[in-house]
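Retry 2 of 3 after timeout on previous attempt. Resubmitting structure tokens to design endpoint.
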């Protein structure tokens, strides 16, 4: 069995999609019509609902793709090693909520898998919460927390320092993190009995956030 086959598979599909599209600045030839079919925009997603997910398979340039895919592999494969195909649930909901949070902020089109990456990162936080009572060595737990914080610091610093100058969608990052965390609470494996209220709250939060935002935009 290939470790991380689902996360690697998603990354491979993203690579294929990226290779078929032109970069945002049009410096090389490519299929512009195909690219536009992937981009998410709040003005068109009701007519093109697949873009709630498909935008995560399109990237602005090589640095954008490499940055997102490398972090996704780093944080996603350990989740898949424990939870298998269920890793795709928090990733997908993170991508969807990332798009919807972005739509609240701006009508500008959205590309890139950053929402999914932040969802996977937040899924680790959900896993830590679900399995907090496991007798891990304090050093392991501390390293786990420090890694999560270390991966979260760069975008937070970027937002504080360059939010007015950057095209980065911080709302998509936030939506992705929320989606990954609440769906992680609902779906990840717990190695000890977890109070059902935590599961129910996570599931209800995931369903209500997604449904409420889609209905809201459908009637705008």
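Retry 2 succeeded. Sequence:
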């Amino acid at each position: 069995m290939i470790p991380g086959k689902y996360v690697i598979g998603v990354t491979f599909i993203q690579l294929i999609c990226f290779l078929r599209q032109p970069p945002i600045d049009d410096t090389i030839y490519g299929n512009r019509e195909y690219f536009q079919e992937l981009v998410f925009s709040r003005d068109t997603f009701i007519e093109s609902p697949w873009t709630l997910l498909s935008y995560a398979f399109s990237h602005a340039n090589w640095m954008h793709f490499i940055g997102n895919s490398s972090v996704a592999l780093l944080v996603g494969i350990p989740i898949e090693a424990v939870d298998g195909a269920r890793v795709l649930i928090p990733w997908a909901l993170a991508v969807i909520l990332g798009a919807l949070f972005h739509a609240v902020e701006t009508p500008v089109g959205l590309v890139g898998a950053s929402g999914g990456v932040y969802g996977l990162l937040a899924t680790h936080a959900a896993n830590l919460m679900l399995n907090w009572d496991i007798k891990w060595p304090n050093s392991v737990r501390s390293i786990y927390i420090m890694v999560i914080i270390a991966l979260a610091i760069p975008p937070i610093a970027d937002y504080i320092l360059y939010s007015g100058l950057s095209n980065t969608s911080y709302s998509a990052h936030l939506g992705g993190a929320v989606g990954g965390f609440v769906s992680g609470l609902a779906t990840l494996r717990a190695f000890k009995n977890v109070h059902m209220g935590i599961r129910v709250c996570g599931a209800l939060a995931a369903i209500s956030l997604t449904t409420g935002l889609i209905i809201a935009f459908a009637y705008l």
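Attempt log closed. The first helix runs from residue 5 to 20.
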